[in-house]
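User: Can you predict the 3D structure for this chain?
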Amino acid sequence: MKQMARSADGPGERQLVGELIGYCNRISAHAGDTLDVMVHTDQAEYEASVVRMIHGDRNPASPGLREEDVASIRAVRRPGRQQVTRTGSYAFIADCPALARLESVTAVAWIFPTRVAGGEVQGLISRSSLPEGKGFTFAIDESGHLVFSCQLASGKTLELRSDTALTPRTWSFVAAAYDSSSGAVTLYQAARTAWGHGQAVTEANWGPGELARTGAPLLLAAAGWERPEGGRPGWARGCYNGKLGAPLLFDRGLSVREIALVHQARAGGGGSADYPQGLVGQWDFALNQHSCAVRDTAGQGLDGQLVNMPARAVTGHTWTGREGDFRLAPSEYDAIHFHADDIEDADWQVDFSLGLPAGLRSGVYAVRLRSGTLEDRIPFVVIPSAAKESILVVLPTMTYVAYANLALTPECQPGRPDSWNPPRSRWEDLMDAHPEFGRSLYQRHDDGSGICYSSPRRPVLSLRPDYRTSLLDAPRHLGGDLYLIDWLETLGFDYDVATDDQVHALGSDYLGNYSAVLTGSHPEYCTYEMITAYESYVAAGGRMMYLGGNGFYWVTSVHPERQDVIEVRRGNGGTRPWESEPGELHHSTTGEHGGHWRGRGQIPNRLTGVGTASEGADGCSVGYRRLAASHDPRVAFIFDGVEDEIIGDFGLVMGGAAGDEVDRADLGLGTPPETMVLATALLSEHYSVLLEDRISWRSDRRQGEPRADMTYLENDAGGAVFSVSSMSWLGSLSHADYANNVSRVTANVLRRFTCEPRSTAQTEGRICPTA
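Assistant: Here is the predicted structure, written as structure tokens:
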């Protein structure tokens, strides 16, 4: 049993050597709130202060790192503390009288192991205190065989291993039984295949003896519970990779015949009336798929909680393929997919709490940590309690979380030219070195399944003000959006800053407090509530500046119990890094069909006039060439003071305003016919068009061009949307000391959107009357 505990440590036990890293308990807060700050360092002490972030790009050609110390928050010195990140999902059922009475036991489940011989013990059902090993563990051993271990009250430790290895990615009915009066112990397994149920039984007799008493919790999908000294919360070891469904617990050691009867009953999802006596726990995973709670339907009060967000709404052993929506055939979704590398909350100890002064202005801030040459900036956003300005910048924090800890290197773009191969950044090397911080929604678990949940309650190294990606040799995400903050500051615009969370929770009423709403460079991930909020805002006369590319693409939902957690299912269409398993396209958190928003209707084009067209990274972003519509008197205000026919053939992101991921107008995909296409940028052959634009080689639909379209759209209520359709646009704002045509166009639109009251616009029927 002790050996099992050691082999189950896994990658989450790594120590960070020579680093200073932290995270906050949330991304955004109001002035007057308190943030908890978690910090790791092996240094003796560090200094923590708060800065307001203005610009994050350290490129010598840029304005450089710009930040302001917040004098109202006193810097503090703190002793260093080493933190440990433990990954792995499981279900936790607290110790209770029904468990305390266990002298004999039978544990039963259907399992679909996805990483069988992984070199680590993977628990299925256990109640074992570690490291002493009191209690029992039913698990898969390092070589892929079932194993049952227990410690008796006498102190004797015993173990039985099955003779037959499990078959990966195959449903098997498994059971382990120990009878304390006779000493009989049994391992039972039966694979469910198209050719029948091949049973394998391994038996032994250890002699009479009760299970050792332990106060450990009952764990599903983990091998045992370690409780450290000093009163700290414990943690599970030996987490399982695979689906687990229909688990049962008996307080008797069932015979082989009785186990076979349970097998027969559970093969079709039978109820407790079909079981032998002694049922203590029965967990129905088909219930409350949106929740982190698992319900015990045996009536013994053994309800549990899921830890680290295993995947719910996944097919179980009875799935027929008749329905692909778990809500329409719930009994066929009685399973949860656990992973040894799941992580929602790193669960570091709080180093200090940060009180935000009541008068702190809205903006982007960071907790700056320093110790010798080590430095880190943990970002957070101070959101306004009430609108104080006419401009609202909405930072796409759901996109930040979706990309969490993804090292975007040039290898991510296979079509790039060989000449484009910038050096890796420090942050990318650190992400690769510490997989225990968790991966992004673009990556897969170690068992090959796609990652569908993400949370910021962990060190997110890609969420740093000075983060640069070698894919672009430039900032991306927060670092890229700070280009906009820097520009607003430099040109003297007053603004508030919010995050996706506020738009999701508060809707168009929240947006309606502002004359103009500006997006960040990459609002790719958005919920239905967010899209509805933007549409309603514009329909009621609001003005929106879509200052990015690849916006409003993936259907995203928010966990109803864990508001920091987002969910994405990749569906079977769209340009995707992985594909959801058959029957698992619906979000567990909301039940809605996942995939990209274009698959749910013409939503992106309908909202902004454009939709995602292409992506690439060739080191040669380009400018936009103005079209005839740009000379229309109705949009003269946009190009006031701009004589150039090429807009943005310069910039900090690969040298131009159009690049990285871009959008285009398309009437066939929902672009309103009133949309004015003002300018377009044609990208190189190194840019790939979307998979959904390449249906078949005989498709009647014209294949989408790799281009970015600058568009303008307005309605009779005075609402308007200006779209630049490129993630690189913001990187061109500071060129030539901000005196350039990208800066001028952006300022022209923003001034018009904010200087004219909505009432005037509604009276005149448009916000840009003909000159």
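Residues 1-12, 697-701, 758-771 have pLDDT under 50 and may be disordered. The first helix runs from residue 2 to 7.
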